[in-house]
Amino acid sequence: MVSPFLPDDEKLAAVRQALPALSAGIYLNTGSAGPLPRETARAMADLAEYELAVGRAAPDYDLQSIERMAEARAAVAAILTADVDTVALTHSTTDGMNAGAWGIDWGRGDRAVTTNAEHPGAMGPLLALRDRRGVDLRIVDIGDGGDVDGILAAFEAAIDGRTRLVVVSHVAWTTGAILPVREIAEIAHRAGALVLVDGAQAAGAIAVDVSALAADAYALPAQKWLLGPEGMGALWIDPAAADRSPMPAASSGATTIARRCWASPGAAAGWRCSSGSTTSIAAGRRSPGERPTRWRRSAAWRSSHRATGWARS
Ligand SMILES: Cc1ncc(COP(=O)(O)O)c(C=O)c1O
Asked: Are 24 and 98 in the same domain?
């Protein structure tokens, strides 16, 4: 970790030291995958070595892995200005977008509205819903994302009483435009629709406050602006929305933590939707000098991952 309180020149030197890939050239592709911090790579290597040498499961791992996952979820909660109980760990943005899109009990002819600037990770689930479930998918042309009045007028025209879901990026991957999510959410909510936000190009790049955005769910990756590894992400869910339209994904930890989370569903939306992985955001948070044995439970947790309900449907 680089202290934010260092003088600028020292901070820059420390950041460069922490991110070895910066020495290989000018790094301009964080929108695909950010440079991996040395500390994170070391923690992942420790875990891989532990799994190799000791194994990937043991009966006494569970409580500690829950702690590590809670730490990772708390880190995401801080980034999203949200409560830890509303954050689920996933494997990618696309994973979260799938959970959000397939979490609705769609009827034939129900409408979903999105933009023509969505990434395949967001568009794919919607196209599948159109083709498999007969969802009426409307795609709003938002141009380069800069004409806010035009965008809002287009959403007003596309959203109707049968609209169940609006899917929109926070930051467009095509142009970098910050889209007017809050205003779009207000239009959607007036029609009774939920709003699922693709935060892949926003989380870690710009300040995010999910409540201020008035969204119902927000998906993000670890590997881009948050500089985490591949195979890790998170989904924030507003508890009221989760109760209105419970996500069907079973947590990989369901067998262990089911009693705790199902007993208080409103407070545990994050747990309910977790797809279960602990190696990256948690890995980056390993404290200096901590023994790799801290990873034992996390390893077991990761290997206990099961395919989620929506993935099979
Ligand atoms: C806006 C947007 N959404 C989704 C994705 C897919 O992200 P992931 O690989 O985490 O599923 C990307 C990747 O570039 C993206 O830019």
From this structure: no
Question: Which residue minimizes the CA distance to atom 7 of ligand 1?
Answer: 93
Q: Is 196 exposed, middle or buried (0-12, 13-18, 19+ CB in 10 A)?
A: buried
Structural domain for 92, as ranges = 69-303
Record the pTM: 0.82
Q: Do 179 and 288 have their domain in common?
A: yes
Number of domains in the chain: 2
128 plus 36 within the same structural domain: no
Over residues 136-167, the pLDDT tens digits come to 999 999 999 999 999 999 999 999 999 999 99
Query: 109 versus 242: which is more confidently predicted?
Result: 109
For residue 117, report the distance from its CA to the centre of ligand 1, in Å.
Answer: 12
134 and 211 assigned to the same domain: yes
Amino acid at 18: A
% of the chain exceeding 90 in pLDDT: 59
Beta strands in 20-178 (DSSP E): 87-90, 111-115, 136-140, 163-169
Supply the residue whose CA is at minimum distance from atom 5 of ligand 1.
121
Strands 217-221 and 163-169, bridge-based pairing: unpaired
Q: Which of 76, 97, 201, 275 to mutate to test the pocket of ligand 1 (most atoms within 8 A of CB)?
A: 201
What's the CA-to-centroid distance between 201 and ligand 1, angstroms?
7
